[in-house]
Design a protein that fits this description.
Chain lengths: 103, 103
DNA sequence: AAAATCTTTCGACATTTCTAGAAATACCGT
DNA sequence: ACGGTATTTCTAGAAATGTCGAAAGATTTT
């Protein structure tokens, strides 16, 4: 999956907003069944316009996918994307430690 | 180390800025010997005031520590802090996957 | 204490991001 | 097609963030 730095920053910036981080955590816990926009809204108690705005951002960086189910929009987190971030951080931002511990 | 969500968001937001992410990666690679502000500046080629500003932000969230060595300021990344972020993401944002894979 | 080097602080501006009410749109069941 | 529920788009103000030149602050060397 290997993110490049610029992309990693974009993803990290998304998670850097507390509201969006809450959304993502909620969806992660929801797993493969995901949650509808309305369910998320009830849980987080934020205006629908604000929520919709954040979901759009999350969709744009590929962290969240939406799927229409008749009247309802089901939101799903993209686990690959999340893992890509963790991988990036592990690879690019934790690597130095061990090498230098010897020095 | 266990970050709480609000703190995690603050840290992630720092890494969400491309310039700051570059700074952190540089320091991670530099390891225990770190880098002076001037060395970082040469490497990234950004104005000192801008760099200083970002280093202050990074210091405020504990990602970077500075240590004066006579005329020079040496910057060191806090590996514990980085690991705490990775741990947080792994714990709070990847957890759902396995549980649900069975469903 | 003045010079030289390194780094930060100040101040100002531009840009982006966040938030949310109101209006519009989308889809379904009737 | 109408009514109802779900969600987005529009719009706009407020707040936060990013950028950088110029001046000021440290610290050592002379």
């Amino acid at each position: 999956m290997n993110l490049e730095a610029a992309n990693a920053a974009r993803l990290l910036a998304q998670l850097g907003n507390e509201t969006r981080l809450r959304i993502v955590r909620l969806l992660v816990r929801a797993g493969r069944s995901g949650m509808t926009v309305g369910e998320i809204q009830k849980e987080l108690d934020i205006p629908n316009s604000t929520l919709s705005h954040h979901l759009t951002s999350l969709r744009h960086v590929g962290l969240v996918e939406q799927r229409r189910e008749s009247t309802v929009l089901r939101c799903l987190v993209d686990y690959d994307r999340i893992n890509a971030i963790v991988d990036f951080l592990t690879r690019e931002c934790c690597a130095g430690e061990k090498e230098r511990k010897i020095l």
